[in-house]
Amino acid sequence: MALEAVQDLLALDPDEPPAQVLARPSLQSTLERIRREQGFDDDAWQELLERFTAGSGVHRRWLVEAAVQLQGRLEGLESLRSAAAVDPLLAPLVPVQERTLASLLTTLLPPLQALPAEDPLPRQVAGLLPALPLRLQRQLAGRLPGLFPSPSPSPPASEGWASSVPLPAPAAVVDSLWLDPDPDTALWVLWVQDQRDPLRAAALRQQARPGRPSHPELQALLAGQPLEPEQRLLQLLQVPLLAGLPPASLLAMARCGSERRLGPGDPLFQVGDPADGVAILVQGRCQVPRALGNGVFTAVAELEPGETIGELAFFSSSPRRSEVRAAAGGATLLCFEGHEFEMLLLMAPEFSRELLAQLALRLEALYTRLGPADHRASTAGLPAEAPL
Prior knowledge:
This protein is of the alpha+beta class. Among the domains are: 2-53, no CATH class; 169-228, no CATH class; 240-381, Jelly Rolls (Sandwich), CATH 2.60.120. It is built from 18 helices and six strands. Strands 1, 2, 3, 4, 5 and 6 form a six-stranded antiparallel sheet that branches. Strand 3 and strand 4 (296-303) form a beta hairpin. Helix 15 runs antiparallel to helix 17 (338-347). The model is unreliable at 154-162 and 375-387 (pLDDT under 50).
């Protein structure tokens, strides 16, 4: 009975090695209760726990099962990638599936390295690693160079190692993310299945998420109420630079921002305006005009959907240095007051990385225009780039 009780505890978190789960401080009182109820003395109890230590048969079985899970999650990632190419609702779940891979690898790879050299399991797992996204390969190469010495570009979804493997149905992969600990992921999964497969959505509503957090929006969707920011989310999914962000980032944008529509030529802000917020261009285009004299203006920069506007002035707490206007077709923007934008950066780290990538590209474009002779030039005299 004691063995079964300990195994039940391990089943609550199958993604971690048994010894790590049993070493958690939060489980010590439960383990002690099991020991007393089953009448084990200290020596007998220690002998029982040794069945779950590194090197034990239980530990070895966990490693084998984790390796099988790794291949399954890789296949699930390939399935999602392929489906997301034609269904934008699935694109935000791709980084979630990548995160589940990273979590599993973080716990799986170190104990694999401790296995004897003749054990075939590390080599079997190493054979799967080149199919990982390149970003994960680089992370692993830095932390575990002995197991993963040379990152290589992962193949497209339709090629490579998965081409001969029957991939799981995308709907089944989506269902598997229902138990993700992030309630925003669960919300997205249920929202997708509501629209794509109501029968699956009904089955999810009958499946509990034991021990996992929730929030009012998820509870409302479970009760059959519509998702409040649905139209705004659908807008964001049309923006290529934003569509690959995970559900938590997109939902944070939809919750924090307010929509603003500009007609052709309407100003978003003008020179000298206070930098009290940031905007994300959702539809249309915006321009940074510069006066040529005699009332004639030319656009010195044109902004595409997905780009942020006004973040440099916001971060530097300086007034706007340039004017930004909607282009000929008008524009729709998601606008954030200062405290809302700060909250977005905290709630959506993936968006923060995307923002840094945009800033890096703009700086590189500025260096290109300046030429190689002087990259030290100050941007103070370059108002065209200043507000972005």
